[in-house]
Specification:
13 helices, elongated, 6-stranded antiparallel β-sheet, 37% helix, alpha+beta, 5-stranded parallel β-sheet, 16 strands
Amino acid sequence: MDRKRAAGLPPPGATTAREAPHLAPTSLLFVEDDPFVRLAITRALNRTGAFAVTPAEHGNRALEVLAEQPVDAILTDLQMPVMDGLTLLSHLVERGVRVPVAVMTGQQITPEIADRLHRYGIAASFTKPVDLGTLAQELQRAVSPATVGRIAGIILFGFLQLIEVERKTALIVVHSTTTEGRLYFDRGTLVHAEAHRASGLVAVYDILSWPDPKLEIFYERTCRERTVEEPLQHVLMEAARLQDERARPASVTDPAAGAAAVQADLPPAPNARGVLREAMQIQGAQGAAVVDSATGERLASEGVVTLAPEKMRVLAALGTEGRAEDVLITVGRHYHLIQFLGSEQQAFLYLVLDREMSNLGTARRRLAALARQAQ
């Protein structure tokens, strides 16, 4: 399904999937005297895939590390033996170390300490005990902003497919009006989701039903859990079917009534047949049809068209939700491409293409021209 055209461009300054290819983990110097905390946080941040952590047990050891290797960012405790965090910060200023620094402390931050932290230009501060998931998210925002993107006004269905096509590893945090959900991708595969204390497909379907979502993308974030096994295209089609069922009035019991209502706006049968025959001349074409968007019923077809009416209705719902001009779904060896007819989108041209034999760009242009011809 291609929803980029329907979604529009992201706002200025947003980082998109195409703008953040193969980002290297942020090298982080983590300074903490408690061995248990040091090990737990080092492991947790390394597992996210967004950080490569070098631990140090106090400020003096941190300065030795900095003399041996460069780092992208520093996270330091404030209370430590040998050399505390504030003394470390003063040494960093003296040495001209210009990397983002975040602090973590279990003590109360007095106005005097807050003023010193402000003068040091601290990127973020965390209070112990910290939630490891929140720490990774906030730390990535603060010290590695190039690996975080923010997008609003986009259709979530289409953006997730872009993540799949680009084979991105990322955490997508989806914000609604009152809550947020998380979608984890591993090299383009949806592997895990969380929302409202639910996980897996239940959480995915919940998130995909939220109107006007705002997205934060944390690139290179991995997840150890695997709660979603189904291909993304199947998940999106099922989510669209569920939305379609929820939106359909209970009184609609006769699918044929919907088809009869739009007959006047559909192309005359001879014209439709001619258009379908031309569609079958497109390189790699396996089947073509004119389909009623409301019912999913085929009004005319050529070649091999196997999708049942309910699945055809789901295809239409994916497009009409965002007023898309066309929708592309890739399943196995085939492209399933639909092009809507007329501004009301009451019917669409449906084309099945062999992926190996077809030129997708040419096929989409030809189908768009045929749709204009059929109107």
